[in-house]
Design a protein that fits this description.
The chain is α+β, with helices and mostly antiparallel strands and about 475 residues long. Helix content is about 40%, strand content about 20%.
């Protein structure tokens, strides 16, 4: 850990250190060094060119679209875009790597530095980026256990990747998942990656180590190809426990690459972890340095969509909502648009934010749908909020109306309110009579309130709300009770 980096919660007296390497598949239609298609799901080896097969004499040609997307990412995370970067050959042998090396970037990457900011449990966090470099993906080994044979599919070979590498700044699995979700949001928001984890478009490798507070960094083990946020947290938690147990039993941690098995919930060693020297990097003689002009960067910057962090800052300034709310509401463009539409229509941004982050988010997760498919529109939510603000219905009644809207029981808010008899009491005289009856029937609570017992006042409010079948305005009930007990 670098000096000055924050510490996190200890696990059995150990500090957890986590760094990430994330492979984001770029949304180009063709591969990084050939014109072969990057479409997912084709028959094996039907989308591989002479370059991808590494046939003699086939030479790589840089895909400008991949560079464009790298620039966009660099701008999104406030990184430095190198004016000149170099491609290198990363040498290793594996059946799905026909050239015997992978074209990547080593000493001079295209994107340098930057940071990803996010909230965790209401606290703002920042993870520093070391670099983001362009490289080609390898092919895929197919193992047909039922016939005892293996094959190679080179459809993925040459698919453009942007590998994003962090400093070891994360201190818990929860923080690591929050970072990964924020990074996922950024790359999908700006459109450089579709973010499909099941198809391998967004693959995370977690470097995990533990140490006693104040000690040198421990030996890390790299958990490869985590393709869901749920498995990510499970894998890191298991790996942390395993490393601590090994150290406590007197064993040294060996640097290794490991895989997570979702069925057992355990990590298992795949191979001894290589260091950079093992790959014998050297500049690729078939590719000249990648030169990016300042004009190209400036043109890209001016054409980019409003970034999540920029939009969040604008929402705070325009609507007066807390920074945390703005961060949650910019989890997607659709969510932000929904909020702005509802807030503009109801003129109550904080209540709109509360509903979106509360009831609506809960229902979206429960039904496993996105905000675009929400049964309750932004205009309907705004109308519901106006009924609350105008005193027509209570918050509890609003939840009943929302439930009816969400389930499709009825689409007209006022019709639901009338049908369910949810209109709040507006007759002050009738409410005063009910409160007088409550006070007469609860002499003990009245005495306790006069003696300074605040809980007894809550009990009286509850009795009054019960007597009105929830139709009274709680604030009005409180006010009348205080007046009568003064």
């Amino acid at each position: 850990m670098q000096a000055g980096r924050p510490t996190g919660p200890l696990v059995q007296g150990y500090e957890v250190i986590i760094g990430f390497e994330t492979h984001t598949q770029l949304t180009t239609q063709s591969k990084i060094f050939s014109r072969a298609s990057t479409a997912f799901g084709a028959e094996p080896n039907t989308q591989a060119s002479a370059v991808d097969f590494a046939l003699p004499g086939a030479l790589p040609v840089m895909n400008k679209g991949a560079v464009q997307r790298a620039i966009e990412f660099g701008l999104a995370v406030n990184a430095h875009i190198a004016e000149s970067s170099v491609f290198a050959r990363k040498n290793y042998f594996y059946p799905d790597l026909p050239k015997g090396y992978q074209i990547s970037q080593f000493e001079i990457p295209v994107v340098q530095g930057g940071a990803v900011e996010f909230f965790l449990d209401g606290e703002k966090k920042s993870v520093r980026l070391v670099r983001a470099h362009l490289e080609e993906d390898a092919g895929k080994s197919l193992h047909e256990d039922f016939i005892g044979q293996s094959g190679i599919d080179l459809n993925r070979a040459g698919t453009p990747l942007l590998e994003i590498v962090t400093e070891p700044d994360m201190r818990s699995s929860a923080e690591a998942v929050a970072y990964a979700k924020e990074l996922h949001k950024i790359v999908t928001w700006i459109g450089i990656c579709d973010g499909n984890m099941q198809e391998g478009s967004f693959r995370c490798d977690a470097n995990v180590s533990v140490r006693k507070p104040g000690a040198d960094l421990g030996t890390r083990r790299e958990i490869k190809n985590l393709n869901s946020f749920k498995f990510m947290q499970q894998a890191i938690d298991y790996e942390v426990r395993w490393q601590i147990e090994q150290i406590e039993d007197g064993h040294a941690i060996q640097q290794a690459t490991v895989l997570f098995d979702p069925d057992t919930g355990e990590t298992r060693s795949m191979r001894t972890k290589e260091d950079a020297a093992d790959y014998r990097y050297f500049p690729d003689p078939d590719l000249p340095p990648l030169v990016i002009s300042r004009e190209w960067v400036e043109k890209t910057s001016s054409a980019m969509t409003e970034l999540p962090r920029v939009m969040a800052t604008r929402l705070v300034a325009a609507w007066g909502i807390p920074e945390y709310d703005a961060s949650m509401l910019t989890q997607s463009k659709a969510m932000a648009a929904y909020f702005e539409s509802a807030a503009d229509a109801c003129k109550n941004p904080k209540l709109a934010s509360n509903w979106l982050m509360g009831e609506i988010t809960r229902r979206l997760k429960g039904d496993e749908i996105s905000i675009e498919d929400a049964p309750v529109s932004a205009s309907q939510l705004a109308s519901l909020i106006r009924r609350i603000a105008d005193g027509v219905i209570s918050n509890n009644a609003a939840k009943q109306v929302f439930e009816a809207l969400w389930t499709g029981e009825e689409q007209d808010i006022d019709a639901i309110i009338d049908a369910k008899g949810l209109t709040q009491m507006s007759d002050t005289g009738e409410l005063e009579k009910i409160i007088d009856d409550v006070l007469a029937a609860n002499a003990k609570n009245v005495g306790e309130v006069k003696a300074g017992n605040a809980k007894a006042m809550n009990a009286l409010v509850g009795q009054a709300m019960k007597a009105t079948k929830g139709k009274a305005n709680p604030a009005q009930v409180n006010e009348l009770l205080k007046k009568k007990l003064a």
